[in-house]
């Protein structure tokens, strides 16, 4: 699984601008993502779910949206993605988990 985005046209405006204006920085960032993805034995679906959980934990709405969208594109069951928000309740707390779940549902409810 390539966690980096090769097509900079698909990037949100700020990362897209960085990729256009600083291609060496974007390439290094993309290479780091690929190296991290390939550094261990975790399968692609599990990696996507872990990255979604990390995004929920970081309370990063943009990253939650990105990993949810990409998970759906990769064929992950929407209910599995939503389960990440439920699993966050005892660790992150109810309000943070519900924020994450709402961001996930922005795409799974479509």
Automatic annotation (TrEMBL):
Signal peptide annotation: none
Start-end of Acidic residues biased regions: 1-10
Domain Carboxymuconolactone decarboxylase-like: 23-106
Region of interest (Disordered), ranges: 1-22
Molecular function as annotated in GO: peroxiredoxin activity
Protein name in UniProt: Putative gamma-carboxymuconolactone decarboxylase subunit-like protein
The organism's taxonomic lineage, starting at the top: Archaea, Methanobacteriati, Methanobacteriota, Stenosarchaea group, Halobacteria
């Amino acid at each position: 699984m390539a966690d980096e985005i090769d097509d900079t046209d698909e990037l949100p405006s700020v990362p897209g601008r960085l990729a256009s204006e600083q291609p060496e920085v974007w390439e290094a960032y993309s290479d780091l993502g690929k190296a991290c993805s390939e550094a261990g034995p975790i399968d692609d679906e599990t990696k996507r779910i872990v990255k979604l959980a990390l995004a929920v934990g970081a309370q990063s709405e943009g990253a939650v949206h990105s990993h949810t969208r990409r998970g759906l594109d990769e064929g992950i069951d929407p209910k599995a993605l939503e389960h990440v928000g439920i699993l966050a309740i005892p660790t992150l707390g109810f309000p943070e988990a519900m924020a994450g779940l709402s961001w996930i549902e922005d795409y799974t409810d479509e």
